[in-house]
Amino acid sequence: MFRLQVILLSSFTLMGCQPDMPVAQAVSPSSTTAPVTNEQKVIAAIEANGCEMNISNMTTIIDQTGLSDSELAEVGASLESTGRADVSSVGRFRLTTGACA
Questions:
Q1: Coil, strand or helix: which one is 53?
Q2: Burial class (CB in 10 A: 0-12, 13-18, 19+), 46
Q3: What is the longest distance spanned by two Cα atoms in the chain?
Q4: pLDDT of 5-59, one tens digit each?
Q5: 45 within 8 A of 65, measured Cβ to Cβ
Q6: Domains detected in the chain
Q7: Full-prediction pTM beyond 0.70?
Q8: Is-contact 66 60, C-beta < 8 A?
Q9: Rounded to the nearest 5°, which phi and psi values hold at 66?
Q10: Average pLDDT over residues 56-81
Q11: Angle formed by the axes of helices 38-48 and 58-65, to 10°?
């Protein structure tokens, strides 16, 4: 039985070395790659939730980003200070650029 398994394994290995077999092609990354930076994660999550973060969707957005409260606050402050978010209404954080302009 062991001998049969070795023969089958060897056959499968050799089949992979045949020159006429198709070779896997590299797939180029799509234009919609997943967000990488914390800022990109926050923007994507807020855009996906109607361009606004408020008390009703805050937990959802935090879960989608995977960031801690302090990381989220840091990104929020950066977005606000660069004019990409509006926090003029109490309890509301609204993106003002990109898909939310």
A1: strand
A2: buried
A3: 76
A4: 433 333 333 444 444 544 455 555 556 677 689 999 999 999 999 999 999 999 9
A5: yes
A6: 38-100 (1.10.10.10)
A7: no
A8: no
A9: 75, 15
A10: 95
A11: 140
